[in-house]
Structures are given as structure tokens and as C-alpha cells.
């Protein structure tokens, strides 16, 4: 299988598990009961109460219930709410979930201890009826859990192929047909239906019958408009399967299988990697970087050019690893890994991290918005297709919707999602909290410029105002217009968070930075308190013209401040390159020095060579002179020989000449006779004399030949000697000339050496000057920008805790001047957003259509609007991305994502997803949000509360086990955080088990802890984080108010023995321990003179419930009775209740006796870690130490508490 095929298989598994994981039997909340009672009293004329827009009714169903009669009676009683909801839910036949768990364990041969027995109920049957009691077709639902157990009962290990939703539909068809055949659902029909299902399911499985008892749930609305607005979003109580995520899971699965999702961009590939991250055989990332240890990477990540352009207003800066995480999170948008995870142990500043990301996104978007001269130039006009009014729209005025021309604007919307309602509320309330913001702006002495920032963000000091409509009296509908101080839609933020329109002189919500949406009630509140007032009061034509001028001014101010910030950042970036420039310059100088040194060496070598050459020349000159002398001597010798031979030759020549003359004379004397006689062979005397003369002449000539030959030979020798002499002379001249050249070269080399030495000394002087300047500049830059030096890095990597903390709390590469400038830029970016929104007709139109889509507004004709089909799919993402301009951060629970974004069916339509408390969320519940977003920042801690999985599902899912799904089934700790950490290349290792040294890879870690003092910090640090956290929590001043309220002087372990009140029902409450806890609680009420800042946390639900009963019983007749009720409700629970919360003091009530080994072993490190880190200053552990010392986590707690107690003393 390739990755996409694996992903499809895994999603199918998740979808089936989600389907089987049945929700609890519907319960009516106490506050709703009170509302109904009050309305009944009103109808009887007993009291006066405000009319409710909707009343939620829960009616008990018995075997004799007449549904139609209930509806008639309610219409008679609730006269002010006569509009019945379309959905009327019937849930009957309660079953204990733990009974199902036991059956699953029996069928699958599972023997595991579960610490908290699930006491909840589930419904066996669910369906809907009309107001006449008529069954609504296709609404029947059989308990998926019971059905799944039956499949295992019938088919055993083969059940995995049978447990499908298609098979489920087939199985319930018989009951669907039965109800359809009956029409009206009478008491008799319900009883018969229950009997049928008892026969088919309950008796075979449990050998017992379910009773025909349950609940009828529906709503009564005040008006038709209220019904149309709210009814479509009401909970589907009778659909027994959990359906919060199934549609999204099937959507993603379908897109993957069709090839429309998975390989088109980095985010899609990363989502596929996320899904398959646990599959065995898929290799771990090869590019993992232990971000805490790699200095080179840290320097790159924290380089000035990576600094976010803005900063959250505060005197404080992010710590070292916080800034690392911030920079990596912001750069992940453009990286190969757009899903980035942060590991945030308790108290390490996850909210600070999120604030900085939020600021950066707002400013980056403002840069894009500021490119437009007119805000409406940023949009393309789009048309609906299914409306009945102008241009097929839904309103004649706002008949169109608009989308951004620049898609990049959509990158910066921020959706915060969590499995934890408290986490969603915390971030939503924290961001607009002006009081907390201003607390961080008060220390102007150490941070010059903070006073100016405070004037921008403190509502009591700002000069900007806006006119808002407010109520003078909550009981009256009359409104008046009042000028209110305004930073960023401040009064609207106040209205939303307080759910009040009543005027108040002082309010602290500084800006509309965030809003909780998701569920229907939140959307309704947002529409009523924010969206419609914004449209009606600010976004009309007259106001728009005014704000277009303001928009231009806001853009000018923003650009001016942006230029200032960028200038400072460029200066810092240049300064950060000091060492690089210095090294480059020193390298060049050293290269020059080396070159000059080499040149000097070469010149000196040349001089030595020239000297050697001179010696050779002298030797050669002597040899040449000797040879010349020899040649001359030989030449002279041959000259003398030549002269002698010439004399001999001359003597012969004289004789020959004499003979020649004689011959001539004789020939002249010859006559005819002599000639005639000679012809006939007779010679005359004269002839004879002539022949004798000629013969003598010839003899002499022959004798001359040897002489001539010798002379010729002498001439050749002399010529050769002369040539040799000439050569030697030339050689001598060459040697002489060469010697002159050499002498000149020596002189030149000596001159060069002097010059080279001068240049060398100059280079060395420059090096010394640059060294001095570098040290001076380095110190100056360090002071100016808090730049890191070798001392910093030595501290960072030091094993000495104090030195390491000194580095960890630092924020390198920043300055007060730059921080203040970045904070101002944030303010001006908000003003750009504000005026862009108010100056844009397109934005108004999108807001109006969004209100229509949410059923929060009537159109200009006064009609309710229902945007349908393709129009919803086409428009919603554009409308919602426009809303992000107004509310930069929108939060929701994961359970609401599927419904909230059901009209966004294409991937990557939204910007950044921020997952908070990701360690608590099951991996699959984030899939719909990941699918729709372009980037994700996952923040959480897998070492705290793990995701909640019911025991029944935990065990039942084992039926699906195979080689691929094995890792997804065996672990109870898998979470969104685990999955994101696994694919995050930037993280670190922490020791998971001290005994084995096993290490676990986590996402980019935050390490500076600022919540708990000792011993809580050390317990958590050693137990869960391999001692990687660094504590910077300050002890409270002895004279502070909180110190005066401490119940006990120091943290301690009270070892209280006793027996559990029940062993058969897994009730681990020990009365003696409860009494000890009660004493501390009672003392707390006295110390605080009311509700103490004290939590009671226990691993076991049974212990919590028993303690609550004890407290309520003992305080029944005290002055703290009402406070005790609230305290028990809010401050007493298991660890799951308190994730993300903190208190000054915590009682960790352990329970258990010597017979509870299974329970003691069940308490793992994550439970202990969360419990102890809820306590900021005092931890009171109550439990039998002899029982709990067998649990190594609690043994560590005991040891650390004991050490701390000794230190305190």
C-alpha cells in the first residue's frame, strides 16, 4: 500500500470506532430545570421572569407515556413559547455502559484494570417524532455499542468484516419498517419495540431486559424566526452514534480515494504523513534536528532576518526556546512541513507563544491590505446561483458576495481548536483582556518607551473614540449613542465577553481580537452582540466615506512604522553579520599577509639563487678566458707554421716563375725546323731544353702541392680556431651581460623585499586595528541587540543549572527600541484592519451574507434567509475568511468543526490552524480542521492528561487489529500531539523512562517553567520531562496577600491509613483520608473567608464524589454552605477537570488501601504530573504511603515533598 491507501484504511478504522463510541444518555442540566420551573411558575402567575427565546424541555418517558398529550400540555403551559421544534427526540431503554464493557471483556478475553469505572448510561433506542406523535422516517437508531457487541457475540474474530455502517443499516431496517407500519408512536408501540430489541439483543447478550423508560427532548421557541434561526443547529439527541467527526472523516477519505487530496501541496502531503505516522515500517524522518542541541540550526532559526515583524505589547520578551518555537512556527508556512508542533510542559508559556504568532499574522496581513488604495479594490465580485432576488441573490441590496483577489490574504486567518472547552475559553478571554495586557506595560523604568505603548493599549488613556449604541438599563430595550474609548472595536469585544449591552463607564476588553464560535449558541451570541451591531452602526454609506479617509491615514501610519521597524531590523541584521564580515576581512588580510610572506620568501630564495648563479658565472668566465687563451696560443702556433710554409711556397713560386720565363723564352726561340723535326719525332737541342724546362717546372709544381695542402689545412684549422674564439668571446660577453642582469635582479629583489615588509607590517597593523574594532563593536552590538556571544553559548550548553537557566531565559537579538517599534506596528496594523473593514462595501456585503448563512439576520425585505446548496459551498469560505479580517482569532471545539464548517468541502480554504491542549485530543478529531487549513501549529503536552477513550471502545477496537492498525489500537496515549510530533523535524528527546533510559521524540520544546515552586516543579520535571525544564517561578512574598492565606506552612504528605468503603464497586475512597482533607478544606474557607484558592484532585472519580458529599454534609449548617456548593462544583475533580488550570494550593487525595494494587498500579505519571502542577505554591498529598510507595511515581512525590519540607524548615 502507498501512503494514501494506508491513510484511507486508517480513516475507515477511525470512522467505525467513532460510530461505535456511543454518547451518553441525555441529561438535563440543573440550570435548565430551573428555567423550566420558573416558566411554569410564570404561567401560573406566581413569579415574573424574562421571556426566553427558547425553552429546552426534557420529559420523562414511562411505559404509559402518551407523547402527543405531552405536546398538547406544554402548549397549554408555555404560552409565551408556542413554536415547537421540528426535531422531537425520543431516547428510551437506559443501559449501564459498564455492563457493556464487562461483556466486551468477556467476549474478547480481556483482563485489564480500569481505574475509574464508567457509571454513565447509554440509550438502547432513539428516534424522532412529529408533534402528533408520528414516527419520522429514517430517524430510528439502535445503540451502536450494543449492536457492535452483538456482532462480536455472533461472529467472534470474524466480526471485523461485519462491523460496518452498511451492515448496521441492514440490521436496523426491521425496526424502521415496524415503526413506519405503526405510524403513531404510542406507549404500546414503544413497549413492543423495546420487547423486540430485548429479544434480539439484550437477552442473548446480557440475559436481562431493558425497560421502556427514557426521555422526550424538544424545544419551544418564542417566535417562528427564533425557530428557523436555531432549530437547525440543535443537538440530535436521538442519533445515538457519536456523529461529531464522522462526516468529516468520510469527506477526507473520499477525497483521498478519488485522488483529489493528498499530493497537491505540502500541507496535503503533511496531513497524509500525519495520518500514517504510527504505521510500523514507515521510516522515521531522516531530517530530524534535536533543536535544543544543534547550535548552527539555533543560530539560523534565531537570526535577525527570522524575527517576527511584530510583538505582543509587554515589557517581557519570549524566552530562548519560546522564540525558537515562534520563529519555526511562523516559517513553517513556507516550509516543507506546514504542520509544526510545540511541546509545552505546564507553566512554560504556551499562551505567550500563541500571542506572538497572532501578532505576526495580523501584521503580515496588514502589509497585503495596505497595498490597496481603496479597500474594495481587494475583492472580486461573485454571484449566487440559487437565490430568488436580484442577481439570484438573497437580498436586493447585498445580492453579491466577494472574494479576495490576493489569495495570500487568506493565509493569515487563525482558527484555534481544542478538545478542551476551557482551553478554548481561556485563549478567547485572554487575548482581549486589557487588564492583563496593561499589567505587562507598567515597568517603564527598565523599559523606556512602554509608557507610549501603554497609551496605545490602555482604554483609560487612549484618545481614539467610537460611537456605540448602549443600553442604559438591562430591563429596558431603549438604547442611546455614547462615545466610547476604542482601540480595535473595544466595546464590541466587551459586549461579546460579558454578554451585556448595558453601559458601563469602565471596561477592560481592549480589542475584538478573538471570538468563540463553533457551537450554535456562540454563533447566536456573536451575531447579536457583535456582527449585527457592527453592520448596523458602522457599515452604512455615510460612515463608509468617513472611514475611507481614515483608512488612507491608517495605511500611511502603518507604512511609516513598518519602514522604521524594517530599518531597525536591517540594521540589526547587518550588525548580526559583524563576525561574518570581520572573519571575511581578517581572512582577506591574512591571505594578503600570507601572500606577502610568500613573496618575501620567494624574493629571498631568488637572491640566493642569483648568488649561486653569479658563482657559476665567475667559474664559467674563468673557463672561457682560459679557453680563449688556449685558442689564441694554438692559433699563433699555426700562424707561425703557416708563415714557414708560405716561405717554402714562395721559394718554389720564385723558381717556377724563373722556369716559366725560361720556357717562354725557349718557345719564342722555336722555329719551323724545330717544330717539324719535333713532329717527325726528332728533337732539336732547343726542343730538348724546352721539354727539360717544362719537366723541371712540373716537378717544382708537384713539390708545391704538399705545401699548398698543408697551408689549406692550416687555414681550416685557423678558421675553426677563429670561430671557436669568436664563440668564446660571445660566451664571455653573454656571461658578462648575464651577470649584470643578475646583479640588477638582486638589487630589484632587495627593493621588493623592503616593499613587501612594509606592506606586511601595514596588513598586520590593519589586523590589529580590526581586532580592536571588532571587540569594541561586538560589545556594542551585544549591549544594543542582546546579541549572543561565546559566553552565552557556553552557558547554554553548560551542565551547571544556574548558567543554563541564565541562557534559557534570554531572548537574543532584540532591543527595547525595536520591541517598542514592533509593538507600535501591531497597533497600526490593527488600525489598518479596522479602517479597511469599515471603509469597504464588499466587507459589509460579506458580513451581511454571513449573518444570513448563520440565520442571524433578516434581509432588507424583512424575510428570514436560508442560503442553500451550491451557494453555501461556493460562498462560505470567502465569507468566513472576510470575518478573519475583523476577528483575527476564531476559536471552536473540535466537536463543532464538522458542523461549523460543513459548507467548506474543499481542502486548504482557511489559513492557520492552532490546536491548543493537543495532548488531550484523539488524533482523528483534528482531521477535518487540518483538511481545511493551509498550516497548523500544534501546541500541547503528551505528558499531561491523555485523550479520553471509553473503556468499551478501548477494548472493542481490538477486534479491528491487524498489522497496519496495531499501533493505532494498542496505545491509549495517542493524540494529535503525538502524531504531529512524529512528523515534526524540529524537536528534541526527553527521557521517557529513567530505569531503561528510553527516550521519546517530542516537538519543539518549551523549557522555562513559571508556575510552580518546589516540590511541585522537581516532581514534574523528573517524572515527565527528564529534568529538561528550568524553573523561574518566584516564591510569593511572605507579606503578600496570598502568603497570608496559605492553609499550611509548607507542602507535605499526610500518610493516613484506613480501608476503602467498598471493594466490589471499585470505590477507592478511604473515610479517614476524607476527614483529613476536610480539615484542610475547612481551614481554607476560614483562611480565605470564603472560597479558597484550593483544588482537590484525585485519580479516582469515586473518591471525588465521596469527598464532595462529605464536604456538603459537613458544611450544610455553616456560613459557607453556598460557597461550598460552588467550590465542590468548580474546585473538586479528577485531573481531566483541571488540565490548563492552576490554584495556589492543591490537595492530592489518593484513596486506596492495601488491597488496591490494581488501582495503585493504574495511576501513571501523566495523572501525577497534572495533579502536582496545578499547585503553584502548596501541595498536600493525602494517602497511605505504605500502599503508594509501590507506585514509583508516588514514591518520587513522597521523596520530593520530604526534601522540600526539610529545606523549608
UniProtKB/TrEMBL annotation:
Keywords: ATP-binding, Coiled coil, Helicase, Hydrolase, Nucleotide-binding. The keyword Cell division does not apply. InterPro entries: Coronavir_polyprotein_1ab (IPR050534), DNA2/NAM7-like_C (IPR041679), DNA2/NAM7_AAA_11 (IPR041677), P-loop_NTPase (IPR027417). The keyword rRNA-binding does not apply. Signal peptide: none annotated. GO terms for molecular function: 5'-3' DNA helicase activity; ATP binding; hydrolase activity. Residues 1008-1185 form the DNA2/NAM7 helicase-like C-terminal domain. Residues 572-641 form a coiled coil. It comes from the Bacteria. Residues 322-608 form the DNA2/NAM7 helicase helicase domain. Belongs to the DNA2/NAM7 helicase family. PANTHER family: DNA-BINDING PROTEIN SMUBP-2, DNA2/NAM7 HELICASE FAMILY MEMBER. This is AAA domain-containing protein. It comes from [Clostridium] polysaccharolyticum.
Amino acid at each position: 500500500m502507498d501512503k494514501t491507501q494506508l491513510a484511507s484504511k486508517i480513516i475507515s478504522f477511525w470512522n467505525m470506532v467513532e460510530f461505535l463510541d456511543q454518547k451518553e444518555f441525555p441529561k438535563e442540566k440543573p440550570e435548565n430545570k430551573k428555567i423550566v420551573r420558573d416558566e411554569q411558575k410564570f404561567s401560573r402567575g406566581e413569579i415574573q421572569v424574562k421571556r426566553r427565546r427558547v425553552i429546552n424541555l426534557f420529559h420523562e418517558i414511562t411505559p404509559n407515556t402518551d407523547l402527543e398529550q405531552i405536546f398538547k400540555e406544554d402548549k397549554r403551559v408555555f404560552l409565551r413559547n408556542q413554536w415547537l421544534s421540528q426535531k422531537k427526540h425520543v431516547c428510551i431503554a437506559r443501559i449501564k455502559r459498564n455492563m457493556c464493557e464487562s461483556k466486551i471483556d468477556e467476549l474478547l478475553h480481556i483482563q485489564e484494570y480500569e481505574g475509574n469505572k464508567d457509571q454513565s448510561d447509554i440509550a438502547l433506542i432513539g428516534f424522532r417524532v412529529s408533534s402528533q406523535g408520528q414516527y419520522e422516517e429514517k430517524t430510528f437508531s439502535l445503540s451502536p455499542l450494543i449492536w457492535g457487541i452483538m456482532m462480536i457475540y455472533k461472529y467472534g474474530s470474524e466480526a471485523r468484516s461485519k462491523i460496518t455502517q452498511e451492515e448496521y443499516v441492514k440490521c436496523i431496517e426491521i425496526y424502521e419498517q415496524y415503526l413506519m407500519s405503526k405510524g403513531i408512536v404510542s406507549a404500546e408501540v414503544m413497549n413492543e419495540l423495546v420487547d423486540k430489541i430485548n429479544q434480539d439483543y439484550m437477552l442473548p447478550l446480557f440475559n436481562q431486559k431493558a425497560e421502556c423508560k427514557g426521555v422526550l427532548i424538544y424545544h419551544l421557541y418564542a417566535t417562528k424566526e427564533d425557530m428557523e434561526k436555531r432549530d437547525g443547529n440543535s443537538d440530535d439527541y436521538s442519533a445515538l452514534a457519536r456523529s461529531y467527526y464522522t462526516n468529516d472523516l468520510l469527506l477526507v477519505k473520499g477525497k483521498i480515494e478519488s485522488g483529489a487530496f493528498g499530493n497537491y501541496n505540502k500541507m496535503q502531503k503533511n496531513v497524509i504523513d500525519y495520518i500514517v505516522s504510527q504505521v510500523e515500517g514507515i521510516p522515521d524522518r531522516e531530517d530530524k534536528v534535536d533543536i535544543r542541541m544543534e547550535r548552527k540550526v539555533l543560530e539560523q532559526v534565531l537570526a535577525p532576518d527570522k524575527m517576527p515583524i511584530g510583538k505582543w505589547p509587554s515589557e517581557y520578551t519570549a524566552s530562548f526556546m519560546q522564540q525558537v518555537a515562534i520563529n519555526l512556527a511562523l516559517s513553517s508556512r513556507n516550509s516543507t512541513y506546514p504542520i509544526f508542533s510545540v511541546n509545552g510542559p505546564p507553566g512554560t508559556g504556551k499562551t505567550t507563544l500563541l500571542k506572538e504568532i497572532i501578532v505576526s499574522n495580523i501584521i503580515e496581513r496588514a502589509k497585503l491590505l495596505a497595498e490597496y488604495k481603496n479597500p474594495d479594490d481587494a475583492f472580486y465580485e461573485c454571484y449566487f446561483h440559487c437565490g430568488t432576488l436580484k442577481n439570484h441573490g438573497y437580498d436586493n441590496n447585498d445580492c453579491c458576495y466577494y472574494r479576495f483577489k490576493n489569495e495570500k490574504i487568506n493565509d493569515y486567518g487563525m482558527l484555534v481548536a481544542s478538545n478542551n472547552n476551557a482551553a478554548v475559553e481561556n485563549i478567547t478571554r485572554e487575548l482581549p483582556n486589557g487588564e492583563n495586557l496593561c499589567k505587562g506595560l507598567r515597568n517603564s523604568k527598565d523599559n523606556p518607551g512602554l509608557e507610549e505603548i501603554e497609551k496605545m493599549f490602555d482604554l483609560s488613556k487612549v484618545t481614539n473614540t467610537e460611537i456605540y449604541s448602549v443600553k442604559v438599563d438591562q430591563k429596558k430595550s431603549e438604547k442611546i449613542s455614547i462615545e466610547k474609548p476604542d482601540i480595535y472595536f473595544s466595546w464590541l469585544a466587551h459586549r461579546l465577553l460579558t454578554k451585556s449591552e448595558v453601559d458601563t463607564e469602565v471596561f477592560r476588553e481592549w480589542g475584538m481580537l478573538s471570538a468563540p464560535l463553533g457551537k450554535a449558541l456562540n454563533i447566536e451570541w456573536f451575531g447579536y452582540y457583535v456582527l449585527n451591531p457592527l453592520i448596523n452602526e458602522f457599515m452604512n454609506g455615510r460612515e463608509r466615506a468617513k472611514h475611507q479617509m481614515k483608512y488612507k491615514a491608517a495605511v500611511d501610519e502603518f507604512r511609516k512604522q513598518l519602514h522604521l521597524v524594517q530599518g531597525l531590523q536591517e540594521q540589526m541584521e547587518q550588525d548580526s553579520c559583524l563576525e561574518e564580515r570581520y572573519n571575511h576581512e581578517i581572512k582577506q588580510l591574512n591571505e594578503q599577509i600570507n601572500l606577502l610572506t610568500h613573496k618575501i620568501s620567494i624574493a629571498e630564495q631568488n637572491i640566493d639563487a642569483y648568488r649561486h648563479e653569479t658563482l657559476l658565472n665567475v667559474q664559467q668566465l674563468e673557463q672561457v678566458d682560459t679557453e680563449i687563451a688556449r685558442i689564441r696560443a694554438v692559433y699563433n702556433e699555426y700562424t707561425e707554421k703557416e708563415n714557414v710554409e708560405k716561405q717554402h711556397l714562395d721559394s718554389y713560386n720564385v723558381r717556377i716563375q724563373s722556369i716559366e720565363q725560361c720556357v717562354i723564352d725557349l718557345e719564342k726561340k722555336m722555329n719551323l725546323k724545330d717544330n717539324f723535326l719535333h713532329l717527325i719525332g726528332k728533337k732539336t737541342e732547343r726542343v730538348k731544353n724546352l721539354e727539360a724546362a717544362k719537366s723541371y717546372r712540373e716537378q717544382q709544381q708537384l713539390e708545391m702541392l704538399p705545401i699548398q695542402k698543408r697551408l689549406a689545412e692550416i687555414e681550416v684549422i685557423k678558421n675553426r680556431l677563429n670561430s671557436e674564439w669568436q664563440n668564446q668571446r660571445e660566451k664571455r660577453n653573454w656571461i658578462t651581460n648575464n651577470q649584470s642582469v643578475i646583479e640588477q635582479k638582486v638589487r630589484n629583489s632587495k627593493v621588493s623585499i623592503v616593499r613587501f615588509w612594509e606592506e606586511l607590517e601595514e596588513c598586520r597593523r590593519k589586523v590589529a586595528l580590526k581586532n580592536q574594532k571588532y571587540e569594541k563593536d561586538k560589545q556594542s552590538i551585544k549591549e544594543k541587540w542582546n546579541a549572543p556571544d561565546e559566553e552565552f553559548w557556553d552557558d547554554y550548553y553548560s551542565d551547571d543549572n544556574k548558567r543554563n537557566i541564565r541562557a534559557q531565559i534570554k531572548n537574543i537579538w532584540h532591543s527595547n527600541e525595536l520591541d517598542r517599534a514592533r509593538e507600535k506596528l501591531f497597533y497600526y496594523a490593527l488600525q489598518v484592519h479596522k479602517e479597511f473593514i469599515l471603509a469597504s462595501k464588499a466587507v459589509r456585503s460579506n458580513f451581511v451574507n454571513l449573518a444570513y448563512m448563520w440565520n442571524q439576520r433578516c434581509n432588507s425585505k424583512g424575510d428570514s434567509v436560508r442560503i442553500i446548496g451550491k451557494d453555501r459551498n461556493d460562498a462560505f469560505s470567502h465569507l468566513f475568511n472576510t470575518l478573519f479580517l475583523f476577528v483575527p482569532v476564531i476559536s471552536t471545539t473540535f466537536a463543532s468543526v464538522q458542523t461549523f464548517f460543513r459548507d467548506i468541502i474543499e481542502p486548504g480554504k482557511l489559513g492557520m490552524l492552532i490546536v491548543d491542549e493537543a495532548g488531550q485530543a484523539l488524533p482523528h478529531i483534528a482531521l477535518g480542521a487540518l483538511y481545511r487549513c493551509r498550516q497548523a501549529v500544534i501546541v500541547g503536552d503528551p505528558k499531561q492528561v491523555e485523550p479520553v477513550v471509553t473503556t468499551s471502545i478501548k477494548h472493542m477496537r481490538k477486534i479491528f487489529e491487524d498489522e497496519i492498525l496495531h499501533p493505532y489500537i494498542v496505545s491509549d496515549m495517542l493524540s494529535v500531539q503525538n502524531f504531529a510530533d512524529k512528523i515534526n523535524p524540529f524537536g528534541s528527546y526527553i527521557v521517557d523512562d529513567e530505569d531503561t533510559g528510553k527516550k521519546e521524540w517530542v516537538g519543539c520544546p518549551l523549557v522555562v517553567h513559571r508556575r510552580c515552586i518546589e516540590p511541585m516543579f522537581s516532581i514534574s520535571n523528573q517524572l515527565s520531562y527528564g529534568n529538561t525544564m528550568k524553573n523561574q517561578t518566584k516564591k510569593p512574598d511572605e507579606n503578600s496577600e496570598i502568603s497570608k492565606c496559605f492553609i499550611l506552612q509548607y507542602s507535605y504528605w499526610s500518610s493516613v491509613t484506613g480501608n476503602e468503603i467498598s471493594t466490589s464497586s471499585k470505590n477507592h475512597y478511604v473515610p479517614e483520608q476524607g476527614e483529613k482533607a476536610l480539615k484542610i478544606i475547612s481551614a481554607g474557607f476560614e483562611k480565605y473567608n470564603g472560597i479558597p484558592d484550593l483544588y482537590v484532585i484525585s485519580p479516582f472519580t469515586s473518591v471525588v464524589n465521596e469527598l464532595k458529599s462529605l464536604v456538603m454534609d459537613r458544611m450544610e449548617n455553616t456560613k459557607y454552605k453556598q460557597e461550598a456548593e460552588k467550590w465542590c462544583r468548580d474546585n473538586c475533580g479528577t485531573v481531566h477537570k483541571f488540565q490548563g488550570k492552576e490554584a495556589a494550593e492543591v490537595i492530592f487525595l489518593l484513596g486506596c488501601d492495601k488491597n488496591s494494587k490494581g488501582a495503585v498500579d493504574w495511576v501513571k505519571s501523566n495523572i501525577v504530573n497534572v495533579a502536582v502542577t496545578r499547585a503553584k505554591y502548596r501541595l498536600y498529598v493525602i494517602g497511605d504511603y505504605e500502599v503508594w510507595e509501590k507506585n514509583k511515581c508516588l514514591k518520587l512525590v513522597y521523596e520530593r515533598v520530604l526534601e522540600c519540607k526539610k529545606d523549608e524548615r
